[in-house]
Structures are given as C-alpha cells and as structure tokens.
Amino acid sequence: DAGVIQSPRHEVTEMGQEVTLRCKPISGHDYLFWYRQTMMRGLELLIYFNNNVPIDDSGMPEDRFSAKMPNASFSTLKIQPSEPRDSAVYFCASSSPSGLANYGYTFGSGTRLTVV
Amino acid sequence: KQEVTQIPAALSVPEGENLVLNCSFTDSAIYNLQWFRQDPGKGLTSLLLIQSSQREQTSGRLNASLDKSSGRSTLYIAASQPGDSATYLCAVGGSQGNLIFGKGTKLSVKP
Question: Is A57 helix (H, G, I), strand (E, B) or coil?
Fold first, then answer.
C-alpha cells in the first residue's frame, strides 16, 4: 500500500485566494482525519470523517474552512479566502476500526501551506 | 477538555544514554495512548500504541508505560543513538477515534 497520499506537498498562495488540499486515505480505512500543525499550537484536529460522513468539525477554525469526503478514497480541505495566519502544515490521517484499537493512525506526509 | 502536556520541550543527550520522555493528560477517560516520532519536514510515524487496559508496550529499544489513574505516560529509550534524534509526540485517543496531541519533545542525541 502506498500509504496516505496528500497533495500538493507545498503550496504558496496569495492572501484572499482559494486553497484546496487533497488526501487519499489507505484503501479499506473508514476513518479520515485532518490535522493542522503550527509551532505555536502544535497539532490540532480540524475535522474527521467516518464512512465519508463528518463526525466532528468542532476544530475547524472558521467558516472559511470546509472539508468534504465525496467517496471512500478522496477528501478535500478547502480554505476560502486564505489568510496569512492559515500558514501551517496540514496533515491527513486514516485508520480503520481495528486500526484504532490495535495500530492507531497512518499519517500522510503533509501539505506545507504558505499564505503571503 | 482534554489537555496533553509533554516535558521537557527539548532534550539533548550524549549517544548511549538511556532517557525518559514524559507525557501527562488531564482526563483519564482515554481509549488509548500513542507515541509518534516526527522527523523535520516529515509526517508522523507511529511508534507504540497502548490500550487503556494495558500498562506498557515495548518495541525494540523503546518502552512506553501508561498510568491512567495518574494521567501519565512515559517513553523510555534505551541506549540512545544519533538516529533517534527527532521530535516525539504523545497523543491520547478518545472512543470516537480522535487524537489529542501534546506539543512534543525535541530530542537531540549527540555522537
């Protein structure tokens, strides 16, 4: 398995632009998580899905952030409009019920977002 | 609200030393606890996962313990090597699968 695949690896955009981050979870995993990592706040859970349904989005910082999971193999995190304070590394992770109990999460390599 | 704290924030040791990283959490109602390693500019690699009913897990030179009642976990690294240099993150898991992370301990092992 190729693991959790995120794209792009790096994104530089201007303030006010729309940004879309993409994630392909491990096949067969039915939990998908989006995290954001900054120096100040560490790793924060933004939203997670179970069987493509959003379970908890209380970590999404503002209405400018939205996430979708149209099918079991793809998820997007969108920021519109982007602001400099959104600059961070965004991680996607996936797991299965047995994974949660026995093996935990598998993380992608992350997308480093810079908003100028 | 669950809070996870890791002490120290940074640690530098000479090669060959045994060391302990600490993690504490405020709510003992956890599903599991996981230790991750993060190399600079990279994602997270799972090292050890301890279920709430377990007291410890071992993998090679790593040993993680869990004391739920006191809200503490430790990661013990034996005979440290320069390749162990990384940031180590502790995360507690809720029953819904969400993980709450500490801010990590940055470890540097000097040759």
Answer: coil
Pairwise CB contact (< 8 Å): B97 & A110: no
Looking at beta carbons, which residues of chain A come within 8 Å of B32?
100-101, 104
> HSE-up of A63 (CA within 13 Å, CB side)?
0
Tokens matching residue B17: 């030393």
| Mean pLDDT on A35-61 | 92
> What is the bridge-based pairing of β-strands B105-110 and B10-14?
parallel
pLDDT of residue A85: 95
The secondary structure element, H or E, covering residue A2 is none
In single-letter form, the type of residue at position B66 comes to L
For residue B57, the tally of other CB atoms under 10 A from its CB is 18
CB contact under 8 A, A100 and B93: yes
Binary contact (A91, B32; C-beta < 8 A): no
Q: What is the pLDDT of residues A25-35, one digit of tens each?
A: 999 888 999 99
